[in-house]
């Protein structure tokens, strides 16, 4: 372990909770201190978020910058993920009484808060590619971004080769003109073409891939159904009974689907099947903000 890391507030918080650093988290910090841009490839639950933010938090603690400038910009493809990451960051920051401000900025953010953020930026801002583009189009963008130290892009593999990725790439190119000396960190799930993602993230000569192999292989099971599977349509409603039996046996379940319409349809059919009165909710971007926030907290 890096000598200074032993007395680091995040180390104390981890020890307090009975946790310790993974090797790739320390490796990321070491390489960033050398000036490298990093693409961290790790499976879900591999500690990517802490690895991405550890260098930024360390820099804020060591240099004790004055507030009122944007130090770290975190970009996620999902609004819900920005909220989740903010909540996870605030826990150690508050626990260790660190004087670091962390806020989100998405389409859900009230106008009054967005206006304040332009005048008094948080040190760490969690946002989406679209909200980042809007900030970049502001007449004061140069002053806002000129002192940035870190750019962290989460789930970066979902953004490349897409219109959202093109938009993000254009704004990163402009950010490179506004701020010359900042570190880029990309966080990605397991992917094959790592070099392509790294080149999307950074054009710097000093850049590195930290690849973490999957330690715990996921258990994959395909549900079988006694019902006839239709050739088209129905969007998996034929498997509701089998799905509900699995949910009953689990402490908590998350069901991922492809569209909002499918989410509503599956939710409706699960609700009709809900003889055990399980707590079931649907979540997608078109829900009212209050309902989404409530579901995310629950």
Which terms would index this structure?
298 residues; alpha/beta; Rossmann fold; 2 domains; 7-stranded parallel beta sheet; 11% strand
Structure description:
The protein has 298 residues and is an alpha/beta fold. The protein has 2 domains: 209 residues, Rossmann fold (3-Layer(aba) Sandwich); 61 residues, no CATH class. The chain is built from 12 helices and 7 strands. Helix 8 links the parallel strand 5 and strand 6. The protein is globular, with a radius of gyration of 21 Å. The chain starts with 8 loop residues before the first helix and ends with a helix.
Task: Annotate the secondary structure layout.
Layout: H1 9-16, H2 23-33, E1 37-41, H3 48-63, E2 72-75, H4 79-95, E3 102-105, H5 111-119, E4 124-127, H6 129-136, H7 141-145, E5 150-153, H8 163-178, E6 183-188, H9 194-201, E7 207-211, H10 240-249, H11 260-273, H12 289-297
Parallel strand pairs: 1-6, 1-7, 2-4, 2-5, 3-4, 5-6
Helix pairs in contact: 2-3, 6-8, 10-11
Radius of gyration: 21 Å
Identify the CATH homologous superfamily of the largest domain: P-loop containing nucleotide triphosphate hydrolases
**SS elements, strand count:** 7
Q: What is the terminal separation in angstroms?
A: 37 Å
CATH class of the largest domain, named Alpha Beta
Major beta sheet summary: 7 strands, parallel
H/E series, N to C? Answer: HHEHEHEHEHHEHEHEHHH
What is the CATH architecture assignment of the largest domain? 3-Layer(aba) Sandwich
CATH fold naming of the largest domain: Rossmann fold
Number of helices: 12
* Strands ordered across the widest β-sheet: 3-4-2-5-6-1-7
Unreliable residue stretches: none
Strand content: 5-15%
Shape: globular
Mean pLDDT: 90
> Which structural class is indicated by helix and strand composition?
alpha/beta
The helical percent reads 40-55%
Q: Into how many domains do the coordinates divide? A: 2
């Amino acid at each position: 372990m890096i000598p200074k890391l032993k007395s680091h507030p995040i180390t104390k918080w981890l020890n307090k909770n009975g946790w310790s650093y993974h090797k790739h988290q320390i490796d990321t910090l070491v390489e960033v201190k050398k000036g490298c841009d990093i693409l961290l490839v790790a499976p879900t639950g591999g500690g990517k978020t802490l690895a991405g933010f550890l260098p930024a938090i360390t820099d804020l603690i060591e240099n004790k910058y004055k507030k009122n400038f944007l130090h770290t910009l975190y970009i996620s493809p999902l609004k819900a993920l920005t909220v989740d990451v903010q909540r996870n960051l605030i826990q150690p920051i508050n626990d260790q009484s660190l004087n670091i401000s962390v806020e989100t900025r998405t389409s859900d953010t009230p106008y009054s808060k967005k206006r304040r953020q332009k005048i008094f930026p948080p040190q760490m801002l969690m946002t989406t590619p679209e909200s980042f583009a809007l900030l970049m189009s502001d007449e004061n963008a140069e002053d806002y971004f000129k002192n940035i130290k870190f750019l962290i892009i989460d789930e970066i593999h979902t953004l490349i080769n897409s219109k959202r990725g093109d938009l993000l790439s254009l704004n990163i190119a402009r950010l490179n003109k506004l701020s010359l000396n900042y570190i880029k960190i990309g966080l990605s799930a397991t992917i094959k073409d790592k070099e392509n993602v790294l080149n999307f993230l950074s054009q710097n000569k000093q850049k590195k891939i930290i690849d973490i192999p999957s330690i715990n292989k996921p258990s994959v099971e395909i549900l079988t159904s006694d019902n006839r599977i239709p050739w088209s349509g129905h969007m998996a409603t034929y498997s509701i009974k089998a799905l509900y039996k699995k949910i009953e046996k689990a402490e908590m379940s998350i069901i991922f689907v492809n569209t909002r319409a499918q989410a509503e349809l599956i939710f409706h059919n699960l609700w009709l099947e809900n003889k055990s009165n399980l707590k079931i909710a649907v979540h997608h971007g078109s829900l009212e903000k209050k309902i989404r926030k409530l579901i995310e907290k629950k």
